[in-house]
Amino acid sequence: MSLHTLNDVTYFDLNNQVNIPKNNQIQLEKDQAALAAFFKENVEPNTIKFKNLQERFSYLIKNDFLDATCIDKYSFTFIEKLYTFLNEQNFKFKSFMAAYKFYAQYALKTDDKSAYLESYTDRVAINALYFANGDEKLALRLADEMIHQRYQPATPSFLNAGKSRRGELVSCFVIQATDDMNSIGRVINSALQLSRIGGGVGMNLSNLREAGAPIKGIVNAASGVVPVMKLLEDSFTYSNQLGQRQGAGVVYLNVFHPDIMNFLATKKENADEKIRVKTLSLGLIIPDKFYELAKENTDMYLFSPYDVEREYNTPFNYIDITAEYTNLVANPKIRKYKINARNLETEISKLQQESGYPYIINIDMANRENPVAGKIVSSNLCSEILQIQTPSTINDKQIYDTLGNDVSCNLGSINIANMMDSATDFGKSIETMMRALTFVSDSTKLDIVPSIRKGNDDAHAVGLGAMGLHGFLAKNKIMYGDADSLDFTNIFFMMVNYYTLVASNRIAQERKQSFADFKHSKYADGSYFKKYIDQNWQPKSNKIKELFANHHIPTSADWQKLAADVAQYGLYNRNRMAIAPTGSISYINDATSSLHPIVNRIEERQEKKIGKIYYPAPYLSNDTIPYYQSAYDTDMRKVIDIYATAQQHIDQGMALTLFLRATLPTGLYEWKNGHTPKMTTRDLNILRNYAYKKGCKSIYYVRTFTDDNTEAGVNECVSCSI
Q: What are the GO MF terms of this UniProt record (predicted)?
């Protein structure tokens, strides 16, 4: 029976019974029955069988499924050894959703999509072989991390590794335009090219002169950023990866740009079709000065990027608005436009209520915490990538006079529960993950966008994140957001920070190479390590001490030695950590998404052509039910506290999502007492300011659970959602 003609299957019905209580109990056993039926009725009869491993690899290489150059780096004796190890681990999916998602989205299939050519073990094996690049010891270590689901490569990496007909391995990109037509054209071309190969693209348009600005002395000649946004949206629609999915991009604009209100208006439901952008995401670059002006409920001035660049001889993105605000206001040569800061704050909240946008990048905070030389000016499609950029200049021949640095980043996630429960050597596991990520960076040569290639070659940047926090806390009967959960989060991410530094330092020693401008970083002068050397970073409660009993927690002496090693040998990776949103890959790992609370104990997913599939939260049982409170019933300050606790150890950003009900639960927020229970712009203003004060560098998305039981502003980024 072909995958095209499946009928009379029972697993969907069995899975649906999970959502039907029996004797006031969740029928979790029905999910296991659905899992067994799925393998019996779908996987086993539709997987092509081979006599042995040699025949399988010969077939896949001959028929152009696997990359022979990857396989040829190993003896076949070793490949058999690798498979023996993997088979001994006896991997089993833990839920129907996990198996279904893997075979629907990740498993290699025949060209006509009628049969499977690999199992989860096969995909892990080829990932291990590919990322180890011929290193047998590393291949075994990678296989160990992935088969026990301690490490999960990002979707592009996990899906494409080892295939002969593959897309790129990199998850996301960040580019910017300068204020000239050549640069705008280059950004549009870059968006086409990067969307074609599968990445989500973040683009900053803050350098562009505002609508009505002069061009060559002609007043009111400039069209502003909105027409460029429309061109970019059309570019992503056109470059849709052979029709497989819509291209994905986000445009960022500084809140002090004169086009800010027109920019926000492009996402309003009642916007004129001439300006409305439907598929392009929006993000705001927010300096500290905006929070100050909004707090004072005073007017704010918006500054012409064209005039600012002429006066400072620097593109608008690279001006410190907070530091220069008074000078900018006082300069008569700079055109300025006055609006009320509190009104703009309210407009931002209105749009977040309506659409979930815009994303928020607290740019001054990102730069204050940035340990490397240079300036962060923008972010990616999911707001977690925060890396330095430099502008390019392009002449009329479309040749770079100055080749700047833009950003590409490959991602991966630690499964927190599996890491804590099965890792025998925390540091060795992290080093293995860092080597896999570094291989992707080293092997990425995107000549189609030279500024992206230069940035990658200079930085060797990666983004190791994590998922499954809520599941791990519930499993250990810890309430999300309480003191123990913050204690655990603090120690876990401090350890990831430490061991990624150790790994990057070791790679730098081996290769005798550091990232560009390492000598100008806070790593090189030792100042980065001061807070770890001076403070005692150990668990506070006995419960958290017990959870870390089998893992070495770095001491002040460990940090001191690391600081000395880094000063002597350097670091290979300019950036190491970032918390991305995790989508379908979380299900395969039986992990809760990213660091967020769950949405439902039994999650309902609408799958194309299939209908609804139900997914019980990982580790859900009668004992853990009290610890699984929905994100929509959770005080978002608790979520912000978790993210802020982790953020102090993370060199890049985090995709922090806010979850709110259209009608907020009674008593959840004290400022609602005596007022309407409906979510208002004031609620979002308060929460954004709380996140800013707690040290969160970004806010990704606002999701609203409406009174008619639907979700507004739900966005799963298929490129960065790993």
A: ribonucleoside-diphosphate reductase activity, thioredoxin disulfide as acceptor
